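Example for tutorial group B:
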């Protein structure tokens, strides 16, 4: 594997390979000194054109636990504000000698474009509404930890699907592992066409919740919404929010997930986020190990971790 740009690049087999390898990095992460020399001498740069808390820090932690050197590119403190183009920025960074570039950008397709310009490996850390493959991998890993194999499981993805790269990558990954996915959202928060999406759609969260093994809540991405797509946030919460009352409709083993950042009180009630069925912090912890697995597969010359 040279790049990780979209979930479909991996296929079911590739996803399973990442998840299996993640087990060893979960074990490494639990050690008193959570570090292995696997990527010593390798350099990774994180090129984030969009703000991020978890994803950037998670990749940074992953690279450090593998003993790679990591450089952080800070867009606002860079020559981008002097008008340097994306291509020139990327070529400048590559000229310094990097083995992998981790890219986040507000425009779909930027990681694919960067991969054409550089010899280094490229990892998509989120491009516009398009994909966020490592988030889907960590979601798969977390589900597998709690539920076992995903095949035949039923997962609901609830909320602002239209603007969500997480939803697109999750749908691709979950269905490729054999899970059934139901999208639950008002019509205004669904993509204009779902042709080619292997999903069911519902507008009735209360009917879906008792039937699912997991529910993935999506943030209301107001920064991406150019018009009022819901009458008000209060009405959205009343119809599509996972309130404490609704959480009681879930079966005993069902898990609640959220990629973060959460808007407590909007898509998820504050107290639901803290229930034992919520695996939100487990997702974050697993994210580091999953990203170690991805960087290892892209950069290690071979051999076991
Ligand atoms: C998401 C993102 O930025 O795509 N967050 C994340 O990476 N965990 C989801 C979001 O912004 O709502």
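The residue assignment follows.
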């Amino acid at each position: 594997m040279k790049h990780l740009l979209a979930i479909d690049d991996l296929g079911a087999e590739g996803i399973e390979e990442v998840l299996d390898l993640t087990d060893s990095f979960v074990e490494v992460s639990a050690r008193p000194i959570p570090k292995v020399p696997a990527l010593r001498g390798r350099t990774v740069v994180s090129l984030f054109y969009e703000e991020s808390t978890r994803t950037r820090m998670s990749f940074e932690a992953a690279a450090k636990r593998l003993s790679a050197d990591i450089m952080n590119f800070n867009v606002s403190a860079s020559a981008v504000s002097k008008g340097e183009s994306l291509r020139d920025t990327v070529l400048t960074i590559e000229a310094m000698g990097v083995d992998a570039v981790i890219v986040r950008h507000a425009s779909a397709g930027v990681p694919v474009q960067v991969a054409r310009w550089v010899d280094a490996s490229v990892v998509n850390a989120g491009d516009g509404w398009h994909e966020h493959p490592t988030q889907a991998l960590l979601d798969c890993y977390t589900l597998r930890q709690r539920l076992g194999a995903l095949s035949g499981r039923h997962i609901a993805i609830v909320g602002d699907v239209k603007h969500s790269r997480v939803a697109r990558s999750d749908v691709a990954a979950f269905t490729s592992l054999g899970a059934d996915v139901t999208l639950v959202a008002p019509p205004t928060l669904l993509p204009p066409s779902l042709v080619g999406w292997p999903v069911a759609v519902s507008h009735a969260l209360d009917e879906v919740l008792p039937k699912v093994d997991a529910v993935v809540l999506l943030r209301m991405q107001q920064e991406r919404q150019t018009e009022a797509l819901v009458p008000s946030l209060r009405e959205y919460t009343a119809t599509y929010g996972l309130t404490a009352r609704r959480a009681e409709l879930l079966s005993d083993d069902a898990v609640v997930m959220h990629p973060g950042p959460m808007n407590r009180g909007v898509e998820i009630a504050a107290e639901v986020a803290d229930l034992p069925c919520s695996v939100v912090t487990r997702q974050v912890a697993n994210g580091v190990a999953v990203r170690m697995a991805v960087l290892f597969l892209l950069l290690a010359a071979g051999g076991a971790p």
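DSSP finds eleven helices and nine strands in the chain. Compare this with the pattern of hydrophobic and polar residues in the output above.
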